[in-house]
Automatic annotation (TrEMBL):
Keywords: Hydrolase. This is ADP-ribose pyrophosphatase. SUPFAM superfamilies: Nudix. Residues 52-190 form the Nudix hydrolase domain. InterPro entries: NUDIX_hydrolase-like_dom_sf, NUDIX_hydrolase_dom. It comes from Microbacterium paraoxydans. GO terms for biological process: nucleoside phosphate metabolic process; ribose phosphate metabolic process. One of its GO terms (molecular function) is hydrolase activity. GO terms for cellular component: cytosol. Gene3D superfamilies: Nucleoside Triphosphate Pyrophosphohydrolase (3.90.79.10).
Length: 197
């Protein structure tokens, strides 16, 4: 059964919805994020949902003058892979604006600064399991940061590659690159370039 066009907002967009929260319990307090269990009134009944309470994050699609994008590869324990990603990081400094966090993360993970910044795309990464919203910024006019950042743990052996945007898009569409943020970032960047041409 399909909805009539009159039932779909123009332009198409996600819609806020605030059910009555009957209880919200901290199930697990973690080092980076917590797990909560909420009981909410929904429709004629109640539902219970557990989810990861996340501080949010930023990612950077850094593109040079040759339309190459900066990708980093690092170990991610939950998936037991060293996956290719965009430079990214948590909004874990109180009061820090997303753009300031993006500038910080680009310097910390890639030792780069950018002269030009613009919002590219944003995404709830896993809305059925956490409340993380990640904002992806397009960074251009790149240059080397004045000082290199000390890296530890998974960041200590980050691998860096400059990849033609078309090659990154092909890697996503052919199923060779699986990182969700990388996927939406390179696809959004490719569309942005098409729109500008």
């Amino acid at each position: 059964m399909s909805e009539s066009k009159a039932d779909v907002p123009e332009p198409l967009r996600d819609e806020p919805f605030e059910p009555e929260v009957l209880s919200s319990d901290l199930v697990y307090e973690g080092y980076v994020w917590d797990v909560r269990s909420d009981r909410v009134r929904y429709g004629d009944g109640e539902i219970v949902r557990q989810y990861v309470a996340h501080p949010g994050a930023v990612a950077i699609l850094a593109m040079d003058d040759e339309e190459r994008v900066l990708l980093i590869q690092q170990y991610r324990h939950p998936i037991r892979h060293r996956d290719w990603e965009l430079p990214a990081g948590l909004l874990d400094i109180a009061g820090e604006e997303p753009l300031a966090a993006a500038r910080r993360e680009l310097a910390e993970e890639a030792d780069l600064v950018a002269a030009h910044w613009e919002p590219l795309v944003s995404s709830w990464t896993t809305p059925g399991g956490n409340d993380e919203l990640i904002r992806v910024f397009l960074a251009t006019g790149l240059s080397t940061a004045e000082t290199a950042h000390d890296r530890e743990d998974e960041e200590a052996d980050i691998r860096v590659a400059w990849v033609p945007l078309d090659e990154a898009v092909a890697g996503v569409l052919e199923g060779r690159l699986h990182n969700g943020i990388l996927s939406i970032g390179v696809l959004a960047a490719a569309q942005r370039l098409r729109d500008r041409s």
